[in-house]
Design a protein that fits this description.
Helix content is about 40%, strand content about 20%. It is α+β, with helices and mostly antiparallel strands. The chain has a 6-stranded mixed beta sheet with strand order 11-18-17-15-12-13. A 5-stranded mixed beta sheet has the order 7-8-9-4-16. Strands 3-6-5 form a 3-stranded antiparallel beta sheet, covered by helices on one side.
Length: about 475
């Protein structure tokens, strides 16, 4: 297929293919819905806000992406020049906050008509206590968390440029199509892609990881008994029930800033610190120094990548071997060094990674070595430049809503709140992970991290025994 009507069509990228497979095989088609709200404690000009939203959609090509299938069932994408989707309005001001958030959860659980249709819905909302703003539901195939924050910022900056004479109109967003063509050229075969393939295939074949579950060794031992293979290192970590919910835990501002200060002083990323905490928790629960989790890489290093919208997340298994004798900071440095290698090769297709690993280790469908995934989102609306700050010292809220479905058992997203605190949001399959277990994971994760930050030369074994 070369054209859809008069529009040029393009294949899916590697990042999109991973999402697309999830949607195709998940019984709940809303699994790719992202629901998010941004509200500000100020009376907004409703007409100007609507015009600003429409202008931001016009400036963001990825918000106008459509998907289609050919007669063989192969998916393609194209961009329409104008968006016909209207901006809706809803007044929650007389509702309780709980009722309002429950309604937006409902909206987020409603699947899109996927093919040849808009894949976003935007609603301007009035909330209790004088908060006004917007709710957006968008399909993960056209946006990820970072591009969604960039879109929110663009709306704010356009709105403020219309309200305040001294606020300039924001710079243009980057072209989604230009970046898409660049990505597809890489995937078609380049020297860089061959280097990336070799790195990950060498990594996979070096030695086999082992499954370390959030509940300890029971799942692996049960699979060993079931298969009659006492040396089995993979376990099945899927469920027929994909019903999901969000469990949110909020770390206060002061301790959150303490973690950020530690990362700055040690010249490591927050992702490294979080990975160290998670893998140490799993090491504790499984009495196993060989630990693997799934990590996400945003792939937004260049200015074009930062401002092109779309979905650019690549997810890869991330394995570390840290002994009880290693110090906490030595473990972090191992993670940092491996993470730096991942960054250099992160354009490699995750789908090809998993296909190669499954074939090499003869994994059965559903078998894996990773019990959970981690995403750290460094972007917030606390940024230097025109926009929100011009409105004064005004409270604003960002809220994430559940779509009611998850393709994976457990997915932790750590993000920043406007007050400087950190949110730990656990998307979890309700049939696999209990709320009580989420509380325990968060509790031990914080104990481990703060014990390590307190004295990073403490041994991992000492921290585990104390936790």
């Amino acid at each position: 297929m070369e054209k859809k009507k008069e529009y040029k069509v393009y294949p899916l990228t590697s990042a999109q293919k991973l999402h697309y497979y999830s949607m195709k095989f998940c019984p709940k088609k809303q699994v790719l819905n992202i629901g998010s709200g941004l509200t500000i404690q100020v009376e907004l000009d409703w007409y100007l806000l609507e015009q600003s939203i429409k202008e931001a959609v016009k400036r963001c090509e990825s918000m106008r992406v459509r998907f289609t299938e050919d007669k063989d069932g192969t998916a393609y994408q194209y961009v329409v020049p104008h968006e016909t989707q209207s901006v809706k309005h809803f007044d929650f001001s007389e509702w309780s906050e709980e009722e309002a958030h429950a309604k937006m959860d409902e909206w987020t659980c409603e699947p899109f008509e996927f093919y040849d249709q808009p894949l976003h819905e935007i609603t301007m909302i009035k909330m209790p206590k004088g908060f006004h703003g917007m709710y957006i539901k968008v399909n993960h195939m056209i946006m990820d968390a970072q591009s969604l924050v960039a879109f929110f910022k663009d709306v704010i900056e356009i709105y403020c440029s219309r309200i305040y004479d001294d606020i300039p109109y924001p710079k243009e967003m980057a072209s989604y199509i230009r970046q898409l063509e660049k990505d597809l050229a890489y995937e078609a075969g380049t020297k860089a892609s061959e280097k990336d393939r070799k790195f990950f295939e060498d990594l996979i074949t070096s030695s086999e990881p082992i499954f370390t579950d959030i509940y300890g060794r029971d799942k692996l031992e049960a699979e060993r008994e079931k298969t009659g293979n006492p040396n089995l290192r993979a376990a099945t970590n899927t469920s027929d029930n994909v019903d999901a919910n969000l469990g949110l835990f909020q770390l206060e501002t002061e301790p959150s800033l303490e973690l950020l200060k530690f990362c700055e002083e040690q010249q490591v990323s927050m992702t490294c610190l979080l990975l160290m905490g998670l893998r140490t928790f799993l090491q504790k629960e499984n009495d196993e120094e060989d630990v693997s989790v799934t990590t996400t890489i945003a792939r937004r290093a260049t200015l074009m990548e930062k401002r092109c919208g779309g979905t650019r997340i690549h997810c890869f298994p991330f394995r570390t071997i840290v002994s009880r004798e290693d110090s906490f900071i030595e473990g972090i440095y191992k993670i940092r060094d491996m993470q730096n290698q991942y960054f250099r090769h992160a354009n490699y297709s995750p789908s090809e990674y998993y296909a190669f690993r499954s074939k090499y280790y003869k994994l059965q469908p559903g078998q894996t070595y990773e019990p959970l995934s981690l995403t750290y989102q460094p972007l917030t609306l606390k940024y230097d430049g025109p926009g929100l700050e011009e409105l004064g010292d005004i409270q604003y809220n960002i809220k994430r809503y559940t779509n009611g479905a998850a393709a994976h058992a457990l997915y932790l997203t750590v993000s920043h709140r406007p007050d400087g605190g950190l949110d730990f949001c656990f998307e979890h399959q309700t049939g696999v992970v209990t709320p009580k277990r989420l509380e325990e994971i968060y509790y031990f994760l914080c104990r481990i991290i703060f014990r390590g930050v307190e004295d990073c030369n403490r041994s991992v074994g000492e921290i585990i025994d104390w936790a």
